[in-house]
Amino acid sequence: MRWTDWQPIYLDIVDKLSLDPSSDREATRLLTELLKVVNPKSLLQDLEQRIKGKTVVICGAGPSLETHLQSLGVGKLFKPIYVAADGAVSALLNLSYDCSVLVTDLDGNLDDIREATRRDSLTIVHAHGDNMDKIMEIVPSLGAVLGSTQVEPTDRAFLWGGFTDGDRACHIVTAYSPRRVILAGMDFGDTVGKWSKPMHEFHFPADERKRIKLDIARNLIYSLMEHTDIPFTILGV
Questions:
Q1: What is the Cα–Cα distance from 95 to 201, expressed in whole angstroms?
Q2: What are residue 210's phi and psi, to 5 degrees?
Q3: Helix (H) or strand (E) holding 93
């Protein structure tokens, strides 16, 4: 994704959510500095190898995720790879599914994020203005990970497009020519999956800001689908 193509989309999101671009840029600078010790070249090659030509199941943290994962596991004749959007990794771990790629802004269960990374998930950490404390705390403990940003990219924080973890995962996967993409747990409704925030034991109502974010995510995913020849399937709620 070129910044010139993404910038107008980003600025529209900034207006909708009253974001501070300078904070996003500061978070990107911080993540870039922390990842200076990591050479991203081999990780980017690994990312492409994990996705190219594969059937990819991208897991959002919506309430339907467990049902979708269980339905995919019944009589399946194919072996997809699983990509988790942040807290969805907890559901994958609980159901003993391998997480091949984890896309996270560190809002999910941090112990599960560490565990998935330890188990060879290729983890992509996102920088934005509200997660700088977590970036400083968690990133040094994760080892070799990739960085992502929603502002101008750097040599360690890449711009694939996307705003929430779910639609950003879709942009990342699409960039590496999968055979097919299946979206699980992408509900876009008024209820948030319990995996989204580690303090929740049950699914919970979305507040107004969350509903705006889910609407942004849905629109970005549908726009992406319109501009790619890669087959997308969105599993029903």
A1: 16
A2: -65, -40
A3: helix 88-94
| pLDDT-based confidence at residue 76 (cuts at 50, 70, 90) | low
Q: How far is CA 79 from CA 47, 54, 188, in A?
A: 17, 9, 26
* Alpha carbons 190 and 212: distance in angstroms, whole number: 10
What whole-number distance in Å separates Cα of residue 236 and Cα of residue 219?
17
Indicate the residue type of 120. Answer: D
> Which amino acid would we find at residue 103?
V
Q: What would the mean pLDDT of 20-45 be, rounded to a whole number?
A: 98
Q: Cβ contacts of residue 39 below 8 Å, gap of 6+?
A: none
Provide the 10 A C-beta neighbour count for residue 39. Answer: 11
* DSSP output for 99-136: -SEEEE-S-S-HHHHHHHHHTT-EEEEEE-TT-HHHHH
Domain of 226, in residue numbers: 3-234
Instruction: Residue 150: give its domain's CATH number.
Output: 3.90.1480
Q: Say what the pLDDT of residue 77 is.
A: 56
End-to-end C-alpha distance for the chain, whole angstroms: 30
Give the total number of structural domains in the chain: 1
**CA–CA dist 62, 178 (Å, integer):** 23
Task: Show Cβ contacts of residue 118 under 8 Å, excluding neighbours closer than 6 positions.
Answer: none
